[in-house]
């Protein structure tokens, strides 16, 4: 009976740890609550639009800059790109942009409509 009790306790601990790890992974995937209005202000103030366009449409200022509207990056990837960017993008440390600022910018770019379909432009449908 004692062996069964020890096995049962071990099973409960394993399930609890697995559930906690799953919850942590889910929390890491979710973006923190950001303010899109503040994010737009920061996006413009920091001149992100210079390369990425005023509505996150991307551009070619110094080579192709990614489209940010409805970015496919999860928040942590987006933040990682801002902190340790690839290519020509400048890095923004926590003293330059707080995690809250980044969450606000992320909320802003997620609120943008993204690229339209050619069907949205009547001139292209003739």
Q: Which secondary structure elements does this structure contain, and how are they paired or packed?
A:
Layout: H1 2-29, H2 36-45, H3 49-52, H4 75-83, H5 99-111
Helix pairs in contact: 2-5, 4-5
What is the correct CATH architecture of the largest domain? Answer: Orthogonal Bundle
Query: What is the helical fraction, as a range of percent?
Result: 40-55%
Give me the secondary-structure category: mainly alpha
H/E order of the elements? HHHHH
Q: Poorly predicted ranges (pLDDT <50, ≥5 residues)? A: 4-8, 19-28
Number of strands: 0
Question: What percent strand?
Answer: under 5%
User: How many distinct helices?
Assistant: 5
Question: How does this structure look, described?
Answer:
Helix 2 crosses helix 5 (99-111) and helix 4 crosses helix 5 (99-111). This protein has helices spanning 2-29, 36-45, 49-52, 75-83, 99-111. It has 126 residues and is mostly helical. It has two domains: 1-30; 34-115, Cytochrome c-like domain (Cytochrome Bc1 Complex, Chain D, domain 2).
Summarize the structure.
It contains five helices and no strands.
Keywords, please?
126 residues; mainly alpha; Cytochrome Bc1 Complex, Chain D, domain 2; 2 domains; 51% helix; 0% strand
């Amino acid at each position: 009976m004692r062996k069964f009790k020890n096995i049962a306790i071990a099973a409960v601990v394993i399930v609890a740890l697995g559930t906690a790890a799953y919850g942590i992974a889910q929390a890491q995937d979710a973006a923190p609550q950001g303010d899109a209005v503040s994010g737009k202000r920061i996006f413009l103030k920091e001149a992100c639009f210079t390369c990425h366009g005023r509505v996150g449409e991307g551009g070619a200022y110094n080579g192709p800059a990614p489209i940010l509207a409805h970015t496919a990056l999860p928040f942590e990837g987006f933040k990682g790109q801002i902190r340790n960017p690839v290519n020509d993008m400048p890095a923004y440390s926590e003293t330059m942009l707080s995690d809250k600022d980044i969450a606000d910018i992320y909320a802003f770019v997620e609120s943008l409509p993204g690229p339209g379909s050619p069907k949205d432009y009547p001139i292209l449908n003739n």
